[in-house]
Amino acid sequence: MTDQPWVAPGAGPAAAPGPPPPPPAYPPPGHPAAAPPPPTGPVAYGRLDHRPGIIPLRPLTIGDLYSATLKAIRGNPGATIGLAALTTFAFLLPTTALGAWLAGRSSFSFLPDSSSAASDTLPDDLGLGILGAYLPAIGQTFSAILLAGFLAQVVAQAVLGRKVSMGQTWRATAGRVPAMVGAVLVTLVALVLVVAVTLGIPVGVVAYAESAGGGSIGLYVLLFAVGGLLLLAAGIYLGTAWAFATPSIVIERLGVFGGLARSARLVGSPLKGPFWRIFGLRLLTAVVVGFASSVVTVPLTIIVFIVLVATLGEDPQGSTFLVLNTVLAGVAGLITGALTTPFSAGVDSLLYVDARIRDEGLDVQLIQAAQGAAPAPWPTPSS
């Protein structure tokens, strides 16, 4: 007997036996079996936000808008709060002084003069006192025009990671001041025309009805209600459609009507586009800024009331109250103008950048500019 395996007759020699097969891959006792590999599919990558400056270069959220505005203010205190304080002071000092002088010229008294035959009539110079009391608000309005331009320049550079000084900001925006003022004047003229149409027509109808001996109170109320709603709608439209006029004039170096047209195109119509989103964000910002301003104005108002009550018995002249009210209005305007106006103007400028990102793909150009592959969409400020 041999150990050779049996081979069929006529077949060749048998092949040498190979190695035995490996044992099955069972896990050793006490160890769990290996889990099967997960099914393959598309790989999910995290979103990469390019952020060369104060904002991520993508469509912005409300958190992005507010945090970036604060970053721009903190990173450029001289060009924001510093310029805001100087500009507001430059406008409020003469308007407050003139307003206080006009208010002091009024002969209005809280207590009637029984010896005068005309004690039941208001003095002719009361209008001067009221005008003087409102002059600081007019000065603050014009200072806000310049501040909007300053903040547009600061924000535009901060988006690219650049810091600017007070002098750089002024040199970059000084030549745009006439166009900015012109855009505001055009807006005011448009609003006056809207008021004349929406309220003038009801007044004319009522006057005609009264002269003809007809009409009713219900009709008059309806006419003025419709006129008021039309006025509100027109004010919302103009205020929102032309919200980006100043950033367009400063950043894109456009003229008055070019800036207004550019703003209207970026905002879009109320029927489509980002119109209502921009309106809502600006309204929310106005509420936030108004609340912050009330922290200053409410205590000052209380002080005016206390002083008025304390001095009314000894000095019943209304001019004293008007003068005091004018001075405190100037002080409150200086504080709120330096602290809150940069925030609201900065939010408007970032909304302008966001509108261009969403509508024109500005983020791509900004990314290329940050990488040195393309020029910046706006010029670098001179030193």
From TrEMBL:
Transmembrane region(s): 81-103, 133-156, 177-205, 217-244, 283-309, 321-340
Keyword Transmembrane helix: yes
Highest taxon of the lineage: Bacteria
Signal peptide: none
Keyword Membrane: yes
Region listing for Disordered, in residue ranges: 1-47
Keywords carried by this UniProt record: Membrane, Transmembrane, Transmembrane helix
Biased composition (Pro residues): 16-41
Name of this protein: Glycerophosphoryl diester phosphodiesterase family protein
Lineage: Bacteria, Bacillati, Actinomycetota, Actinomycetes, Micrococcales
